[in-house]
Every structure is written in structure tokens, then in C-alpha cells.
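User: Sequence in, structure out. Go.
Assistant: Echoing your sequence, followed by the C-alpha cells.
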Amino acid sequence: MNKMPYIERPDTGRGFTGKCAYLWALFLMEEADMSDDHMGYAKWRTLVDRLSSRPGHPQPTVHYNADLEDAIKEYLT
């Protein structure tokens, strides 16, 4: 298992910072891959792709995703 990423929330208090959301989605994608959860892998891979920074598409500064919130709660409890 990989090291869990940190939690960082924006000043608004809703969602996560873009980098935090990206790292958590990457973590969850790798966890799903290691456990052969193909649906989970696809779901988190889509989010990783959406949150990735690439030319002409900067990383979002704030991101809210209910599935991500729920998945993080599972790991923290």
C-alpha cells in the first residue's frame, strides 16, 4: 500500500485543493489497480486525467467530488 496523501482544503472549506484532489485520486487509482478493481481503477483514472496539469490545461485550484470525499472518509476512519 502507498502512503496516504495529505488533506488540504481551500479557504472556502468545500472540496480540496487541486493538488490534494489529484494526489488522492492517484492514490485511489493505484489502490484499485493493486486490488484488481477494474471499475474503481477506471473511475479514479478518469479523475486523475481531469485533474492533471498539461499544456493549455492548468491544474484546477479547487475541486469538489462527492465520490472522492466518500473514499477519503473510508480511508481515514
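User: And one key feature?
Assistant: The chain has a mean pLDDT of 92.
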